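Sample A.
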Amino acid sequence: MSNFSFVNLIGILGCAKVLSNMEMEMLPTPSTDWQDLRLKTDLTKSNLPGITRLLRTSPNLYKLTIRLNSIVQSGVHVDDELNYWNSVQSLPCLEKTLEYVNIYNFNGETSEIALVEFLLKKARKLEQMIIYSKKNDMLAIHQKVLSFERASPESAVMLYLGVGIV
């Protein structure tokens, strides 16, 4: 298998649903040797288990890139999404290998902030997280992100504002 994989959880019809069902039913999923995983998705309740499954089955993951869909869905299942990340147990890549995270099209939505907090709290080898946002008025969110507990105290978190990446 290749060390690179681009997975579009929204564009591949039914992909996120299949992964989510597998996660919920605890069906075995083959482990991958992916070191660089690129996801294009949104952070809706139905996609979170699929994202978790991809992370769980990528124990050698070194770099994670998440390109969030530019559609903002304020308030959709916010409590479910927040509680979801709190319930996720240990993931091998977060314990041992993940060093770089890039998140594009960040809007400061509660579900996005919850994912950032989860990754910072769990990724023990994280060296750098770069968050790109098209918005310019995110100083309060940037300060909040910088205040999150980190599993890797040396990790750098950068937020680039006004960057129009699709």
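Sample B, a different protein:
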Amino acid sequence: MEARRRKDSKKRDEETNGEIDSKKKRRAWSGCTARRGGRGGGGYAVRVLGAPSDAVLAFLHLLYAARAEAAVVAAHGPQLLALAHAYRVGWLKRAAEASVSARLAPGAAVDMLKLAGLCDAPRLRAARARLAARDRAAVEASDGWRFARRHDPALELELLQLLEDARRRRERWARARA
């Protein structure tokens, strides 16, 4: 009788541990779902957290095409840059970096400078620094600048240092020309 109780107890413990393990697995994979399409369609839905679905579709399209299409990269530049950095796709990262750098806007300079730092994109960082140096007033009037001043003092300090370096460089060039 005692042996049977131990066996039943052991079986219950294994079932409980199995349920706990499956709950942990479900919790760990809850953000990353893949499910079969309806009625034998054979399609799968894969969610990539942190990126819009259009950008993920463009990313997958570009991966399968194995070449950067300018229109697609221009439409989803910052998101493709982040995805290419996260999944280590060098050629797509360079194309997205060039596309984002080509479309410079003073209002988004701070945001793109932060993205360049997160995605390790030196050409984008240099282009945004040049833009910030050229049009400092527009950059300081942007929402990104106000947000950086309130919430990210390291980014604000980096941007101020870039602006100061640009000012010193202009003065040095002016002295060299004179």
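Observation for Sample B: Residues 104-171 form a domain with the Serine Threonine Protein Phosphatase 5, Tetratricopeptide repeat fold (CATH 1.25.40.420).
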